[in-house]
Design a protein that fits this description.
Keywords: Cell projection, Cilium, Flagellum, Signal. The protein is of the alpha+beta class. The protein has nine helices and 15 strands. A hairpin with a 5-residue loop joins β6 and β7.
Length: 440
């Protein structure tokens, strides 16, 4: 009997242990499934594809930081490095150049891979310090238009962007090809290529132009209005108007600006405008007649007419005197339009320059600057607005503003920091321009 009881207890104990083991195995299996799901979710988060906005932000911030560091290096070493031979000879790669190269390379290691440094450091160094007209360096504005992601993986992406042509320096646009690689926790520039429109046409659209122009202070996109799309000589153009009413005509294939075509929209038919002015003037007179009060008493009407005639004579005399004074002031303040015309010289080696002014009217003139800072040159042309002895020009793409004042047979020119982007660091248009060139 005792044996039977022991056997029964042993059997029950085995059953109990089996049930416990099954619960443990079930819990372990559940935990394993949860761990697998959690790992899978983490992997999905890690490999989630970047959106266009994220790629654009990575590229823009990277390029902006590269140029911030280069500007700092420029400020710290400009006087020393621009006196060295390599700063005037693109073929010179001597010890002084190698020392400068090493400083720039080390400063940019957090922003570029080794491959990116091998490709870009010399371009950046010579662009900032060499007066040898080295172009092709990417800018922040190259990262902002028509971003397209061509390929991406967990630690790499390849994207393209568009750059429009300008009225200065390089007239046509191009396609930018960017390669970025993740190293540690940083996205770094691995490769950059510029593709000309002859090789790969831009196929510009109005949507591209709508997002192409930003306020340099706020970073906000400026509104553009589609005015027209036309074809001339087999070339297609898109005409847009900015917030200030200025029209620009862009070539669809290469992104260049057709200034002549834009001018046809900026300067509409004057005869049509005059007719509108006449219609508006007639409408005003009719309105004035409608607003005149009805006079019923003849005696009151005679008396009022007499007073009106007297007041009218007084007003006409005052208007004539005011007009004469304004004409005198205008003659005194406004120089003869011919005083602006001609070639003007900025003297003083090594920062010589010339300014040619032509097609002068009462409110505008055409100009072009050709200046030098040691062996680096810069050029800009355009149409300035004139008010008396002052003139002003603004290049929206580079945020370059020129203010000119004609006084005492000289023209004083003041430019903004954005103008250095046209010819590169070290060039400027500011200074005193005279009618005689002085040879030192």
């Amino acid at each position: 009997m005792l044996k039977k009881s022991n056997l029964l207890l042993l059997f029950l104990l085995v059953l109990l242990l089996s049930a416990c083991n099954e619960d443990v195995d079930a819990n372990e299996a559940q935990n394993e499934n949860q761990d697998e799901e959690s790992t899978h979710e983490e992997q999905e988060e890690e490999t989630a594809e970047l959106e266009v906005e994220e790629v654009q932000q990575i590229m823009e911030e990277n390029v902006k930081e590269i140029h911030r560091i280069m500007s700092q290096i420029h400020d710290e070493n400009y006087l020393e490095w621009t006196q060295q031979e390599w700063s005037m000879d693109i073929e010179n790669e001597g010890e002084e150049f190698q020392a400068a190269f090493a400083i720039v390379r080390e400063s940019l290691t957090e922003l570029m891979t080794d491959n990116g440094l091998d490709q870009q450091v010399e371009h950046l160094l010579r662009s900032y310090f060499c007066g040898c007209d080295t172009y092709g360096v990417f800018m922040e504005t190259d990262t902002q238009i028509n971003i397209e992601i061509m390929d991406q993986s967990e630690d790499r992406f390849q994207a393209t962007s568009m750059t429009l042509g300008s009225e200065a320096l390089i007239h046509h646009g191009w396609t930018n090809e960017w390669h970025f690689k993740m190293e540690g926790e940083n996205w770094k520039l691995d490769e950059y290529h510029r593709i000309d429109p002859d090789e790969e046409p831009l196929d510009l659209t109005f949507d591209d132009l709508q997002n192409a122009f930003r306020d340099y202070e706020t970073g906000e996109i400026k509104e553009m209005e589609l005015v027209d799309e036309t074809e001339i000589g087999g070339e297609r153009f898109i005409i847009i108007k900015n917030e200030s009413g200025f029209h620009s005509a862009y070539n669809v294939k290469d992104g260049s600006i057709n200034m002549s075509l834009g001018d046809t929209y900026n300067n509409p038919d004057e005869e049509g405008n005059n007719e509108n002015e006449i219609e508006e003037s007639n409408g005003t007179e009719e309105e004035q007649q409608e607003e005149m009060p009805v006079i019923e008493d003849p005696e009151d009407e005679t008396e009022q007419n007499s007073e009106k005639e007297s007041d009218q004579v007084t007003e006409e005399a005052e208007e004539a005197e005011t007009q004469q004074n304004e004409e005198k002031e205008s003659v005194q303040e406004s120089p003869d339009t011919e005083e602006w015309s001609g070639t003007w010289y900025r003297n003083g080696e090594p920062f010589e320059g010339t300014m040619n002014i032509s097609n002068v009217t009462d409110d505008s003139f055409d100009f072009d600057f050709d200046v030098r800072a040691r062996d680096r040159t810069s050029f800009i042309e355009g149409t300035a607005s004139v008010s008396g002895n002052e003139a002003e020009f603004y290049n929206e793409e580079f945020d370059c503003k020129l203010e000119m004042m004609l006084e005492g047979g000289q023209i004083e020119v003041v430019d903004t920091n954005g103008c250095t982007k046209i010819g590169g660091m070290g060039t400027f248009f500011s200074g005193t321009y005279e009618t005689e060139q002085k040879v030192e």
